[in-house]
Amino acid sequence: MKRGGRLPIGLAAVAIGGAETALLLAGAGRGLSTVELILSLVAGWSFIGLGLVAWVRRPDNRTGPLMVLVGITFLAGLLHAAEQPALHALGAWVRPLHLAVFTHLLLAFPSGRLDSRLVGGLVVAIYIDLGILYHAPLVLGEAGLGGRLYNASFAFGAILFLAAAVQLVQRWRAGSRAWRRTVAPLLWTGALSLVLLAVFNADQFLSRPVGAVPMWAFRVAFVAIPFAFLAVLLRVQLARASVAELVVELEEARPSGALRDALARALGDPSLTVAYWLPDQQRYVDLEGQPVELPGERQGRMATVVEREGRRVAAILHDRALGDDPGLIRAAGAAAALALDNERLQAELRARFDELEASRARIVEAADQERRRIERNLHDGTQQRLTSIALALGLAEAQLGSDPQAAEASIRQAKQALETALAELRDLSHGIHPSVLTTRGLGPALEDLAYTAPLPVTVAAELNGRLPERVEAGAYYVVAEALANIAKHANASTATVGVARERGRLVLRVHDDGIGGADPARGSGLRGLADRLQALGGTLDVQSPPGRGTEVRAAIPCE
């Protein structure tokens, strides 16, 4: 709710509470003892006052409005002691409702929302019990059905209040240590209040064998609830004050991990961790550069993103209980943003170093495989042909004097074998480093590559001169491998190659109209391209939506 809407509602709540208090002090509360009246006014205004404070501090949380409503309905219910018939009737109708709102408040704390259908159904049942069954005698009369429903409301209420207390205990057991520490004052006081209400209702149903003790005990616990809530607020406030200490600690946080420890102390969450954002790779890593997955919605932890000057720098992974006070997390993140950005750079360097080591290992392995392939081709192909040429020439030499025609046939055979061997050597050397790339540059080399491709390829090169040799070689092999992948896997009919200089970088784009679905994580082709580009300080991006073709985009520094 916007501030303009909260202000009149808050003033109205104060006015209603003031009017109820004035009526009680003017004589409507004569049926109450002095102690009862004092305790009641303290309890009612504690709920209203602290509820308004909570509402102002966290307007999106329903805890504040629920507390105000508890206070208003509680004070209005006290009017049942008035001698005036109208005030007495109003108090009698409203009197039990504060217990329903009170239970609603406890089960919704600290988020202000009921977190499950079971809890929601429990709260609805309590409203029905106290809003309808309890008032049956006022509508149907005290005898007969009205009286039976009235008695049943106490039995039903005993079960419902006990079930609500069990829900609070289960929530306590399921919560983390940080969550327990934060909400302990209110949670346990509230659970005790609900148990006492269950005992009181059971006592009423059993014709009061225990007497007034359960209700008096409940009243004491009920009065303590707003102060328990105040204790929770003070703990949160102390946590916010610790953010100021965090700034001082950050100035001294030099060793690795000191920043995480400082954040953990400031937020009171020993399990807190930090994930650093790598924008080029679109992923999170830890301080050692290892990948980090953010927790899901149903896990006991959550992530709060930290930004600096509009840039994402990190995510704080913390206990989900801290999410009930997002302002605290934002304040800690803002205080630590600069230090987190510095550590992010360190994490990025470590991640790049690890990737570089891995890519170097893959490059060495690929080079070894290529060397073995060349050796195998030379041994099985060219070497065998050269051997057969030597044998054919030797045979021709022996036949030259006795059988010139046979010698001539052997020479022709040797010539054909030599031409085949030369063609194989040209193909082999073309795969190693094409001569057109050395003599004429990248543009003509790509045109030559497109000419020999097994599908129509259009090349658009805007280079304005030669590039460094390593850049031209790297770009050539990226395009060659991309076209080879298209021919093998894409089932494409056409492909386009674009090469241009853009702000100190050589940008390559290879696009096809194939089936898409290419994944750089699978297979060695695209991963080999990424490794080659990384060795040149470049980057690779692959966009391959299923059924819409694939675009391989590479950027290589060329200045």
Written account of the structure:
The model has no long low-confidence stretch (mean pLDDT 76). β7 and β8 form a beta hairpin. α3 (63-77) packs across α4 (85-94). The protein has 17 helices and 10 strands. It folds into 4 domains: 1-95; 105-252, no CATH class; 259-362, no CATH class; 438-557, Heat Shock Protein 90 (2-Layer Sandwich), CATH 3.30.565. The protein is an alpha+beta fold. The longest helix has 74 residues, at 326-399. The strands form 2 sheets. It has a 5-stranded antiparallel β-sheet. The chain has a 5-stranded mixed β-sheet with strand order 6-7-8-10-9.
Shape summary: rod-shaped
* Secondary-structure-derived class: alpha+beta
> What strand line-up does the widest sheet have?
3-2-1-5-4
Number of helices: 17
Task: Give the CA-CA distance, first to last residue.
Answer: 56 Å
The radius of gyration is: 40 Å
What is the N-to-C succession of helices and strands?
Answer: HHHHHHHHHHHEEEEEHHHHEHEEHEE
Poorly predicted runs are none
Q: Portion of residues in helices?
A: 55-70%
Question: Biggest β-sheet, characterized?
Answer: 5 strands, antiparallel
Query: How much of the residues is beta strand, in percent?
Result: 5-15%
The overall strand count is 10
Number of domains: 4
- Give the overall average pLDDT: 76
